[in-house]
Amino acid sequence: MTTEQAIHDVVMIARNGIDRVIELERDKASLQAEVTRLQELSDELFSAIVAALSIAPQDSVVYGVLDDAIKNI
Questions:
Q1: Which of 6, 13, 34, 66 fits 53 for a cystine, CB–CB 3.0-4.6 Å?
Q2: DSSP states along 2-71
Q3: Which is nearest to 49 in space by CA: 39, 38, 41, 37?
């Protein structure tokens, strides 16, 4: 193998590594956005359950179900 070929091979390996890092950074950003969205949905769901619990009669089955849901969150 010539020195020129060895340099070319190292450059290609480095380029592939850089491309992979860029791809992983994009994946990371996408996953972080998804986690943020899921957290927002979870917060909205929790708020909706609390709101429903506040208007449900305490002696109803619905109240017990909502109360259990909040405790499990």
A1: 66
A2: -HHHHHHHHHHHHHHHHHHHHHHHHHHHHHHHHHHHHHHHHHHHHHHHHHHHHHS-TTSHHHHHHHHHHH
A3: 41
List the pLDDT tens digit at each of the 73 positions of the chain.
799 999 999 999 999 999 999 999 999 999 999 999 999 999 999 999 999 989 999 999 989 898 898 888 7
The rounded distance, in Å, linking the Cα atoms of 17 and 1 is: 22
Handedness of CA 6, 11, 14, 16 (dihedral sign): negative
Contacts of 42 (CB under 8 A, 6+ apart): 73
- The structure tokens listed for 32 are 């972080």
Q: Which of 11, 16, 13 is nearest to 3 (CA)?
A: 11
Q: Is the pTM of the predicted complex or chain greater than 0.85?
A: no
